[in-house]
Amino acid sequence: MSLDDIIHSHAARKPDPAARMREDGTVYIIYTSGSTGDPKGVPISQKNLLSFEGWMRDAFPFSPEDVVLNQAPFSFDLSVMGVYPAFLAGASLWTADQALIGKPKLMFEAMSRSGLSVWISTPSFAEICLMEPSFSEKLLPRLRMFLFCGEMLPSRTVRKLMERFPGTSIVNTYGPTEATVAVTSIIVDSNLLAVNPQLPVGTCKPDCRIRIWDEEEREVREGEKGEIVICGPSVSYGYFANDEKTSGSFRSINDRDLGITRAYKTGDLGYIQDGMLICCGRIDFQVKLHGYRIELEEIEHRLRELPGVKSGAVVPHWKAEACDYLTAYVVPDEPPVSEVDTVSGWKTLLAERLPAYMIPRKFVLRPALPINGNGKLDRKRLQQEEAL
Ligand code: AMP
Question: Per the domain annotation, does 255 fall within a domain?
Answer without folding.
Answer: yes
